[in-house]
Design goal:
- By secondary structure, this protein is an all-beta fold.
- Helices cover 2% and strands 50% of the residues.
- A 16-stranded antiparallel β-barrel has the order 2-4-5-6-7-10-11-14-15-16-17-18-19-20-21-22.
- The protein contains one helix and 22 strands.
- It has a single domain, classed as Porin, CATH 2.40.160.
- A hairpin with a 2-residue loop joins β8 and β9.
């Protein structure tokens, strides 16, 4: 990514050591477009009387990022990143949503942290994307909408309930390894993986109750990228703060992926996701089981000149396990996305994309970040589709 760099002298540092300078970088993107979104009756047991198109101009996670590093000597450097999201369609950089965790339009609401780095890797303390975007190496486009990312949408849900927040995880301590011959690794821990945006307060408990303060999340990932081949694996496990050892909302997830780029410009991939979520108290005959499902994704892209064509196919299997006493039959879904984008320059890209999710009668899968653009959430059995055309400018 092209970056404009500013050299900023830190006054206190200059007084103490005249040669000390901090290098500050400003980068980001503005990404916006026009969409036509619509729900359909699909397999809904009780369809709506009618379904209407929802036309809107929608921002797609525009951001401005301030980052900086300073050499501490001995091969170690201090660093920081402040990633702020804003809505380029309606303006503003704050969000009043009081639901659990994060939202996207929040000052410092993106990947924000501070830490140390060196030949041993990178230490981060802050807030960061964990686990749910691990399919990005095989599913990425500059000019598509967030809803076209099926790996972060239905592939990261258990019947509509998101895994790993579906956005940044707060309260994170994270280590990223250095690149070791194409292999990189990540280990991260969150003391509380959900927050309330009104006061941005953490649900980290008081140490009282039968289970003390025992919530949090742990994730680990390993990736390989060298030449035309890319491989990866990521595991996530999380518990909300609760006075019980098996709280509702507990999550576990495993993601595996691989991709290969042929000399002709065709890239093909395969993704697998096994996710589990506790949606209610387990019946006595189910022991400590969680509701689970398997999902597969086959993404492909083809680069020809300044053009790139995309196709992604997804199959989400039906639920198994207790499911809080709810139905597990007809809880599977299929989805696909196709698109085309054109690189107007190294920084500017235009594209047209179409995506659709078809839910079975008891399935309620939805697009990624649907509430952020104001889309109506589908009821069980309803289908959803989006036609999007937009621009991306990176700086």
């Amino acid at each position: 990514m092209h970056k404009k760099q500013l050299i900023a002298a830190v006054v206190g540092g200059m007084l103490a050591a005249p040669g000390a300078l901090a290098q500050i970088t400003i980068s980001g993107q503005i990404k916006d477009g026009f969409e036509m979104y619509k729900l359909g009756a699909g397999n809904a047991a009780t369809p709506a009387a009618s379904y209407h198109y929802e036309p809107r101009v929608s921002d797609q996670s525009s951001r401005i990022i301030f980052s900086g590093t300073q050499d501490l000597g001995g091969g170690t450097r201090a660093w920081f990143q402040l990633d702020s999201r804003f809505q380029s369609d309606v303006g503003g950089s704050t969000q009043t949503n009081v639901g659990a965790t994060t939202g996207i339009n929040l000052w410092a609401g993106g990947n924000t942290g501070v830490g140390l780095a060196g030949n041993w890797g990178k230490l981060t303390i802050g807030r960061w994307d964990l686990h749910y975007l691990e399919f990005i190496p095989i599913e990425f486009g500059y000019a598509g909408s967030l809803q076209d990312l099926l790996g972060a949408g239905p592939m990261a849900q258990v019947n509509g309930s998101v895994i790993a927040n579906g956005t940044r995880t707060p309260n994170v301590i994270m280590w990223d390894s250095a690149n070791m011959g194409g292999v990189t690794a990540r280990v991260a821990y969150s003391t509380a993986f959900a927050t309330n945006l009104t006061g941005v307060s953490s649900n980290e408990g008081s140490g009282k109750g039968a289970n003390n303060s025992n919530g949090g999340a742990l994730t680990a990932a390993v990736r390989y990228a060298r030449g035309p081949l890319g491989l990866g694996a990521s595991y996530w496990t999380a518990k909300p703060e609760a006075a019980t050892s098996s709280p509702i909302g507990e999550q576990r997830s495993l993601r595996l992926w691989g991709g290969y780029t042929l000399p002709m410009g065709l890239k093909v991939g395969l993704g697998f996701d096994n996710s589990q979520r506790r949606v209610g108290a387990s019946p006595a005959n189910e022991g400590d089981s969680l509701t689970k499902r398997n999902a597969f994704m086959v993404p492909a892209s083809y680069v020809f000149g300044s053009h790139t064509a995309f196709l992604t196919l997804v199959k989400v299997g039906k639920l198994s396990g207790p499911n809080g006493g709810g139905a597990t039959d007809s809880t599977d879904a299929t989805a696909y996305a196709l698109g085309w984008e054109y690189a107007l320059s190294k920084l500017a890209t235009f594209g047209v994309f179409y995506a659709k999710i078809d839910n079975k009668a008891n399935a309620a899968y939805q697009f990624f970040s649907l509430s952020a653009n104001g889309g109506t959430i589908p009821a069980a059995g309803e289908s959803s589709a989006q036609l999007y055309t937009g621009f991306s400018y990176r700086f």
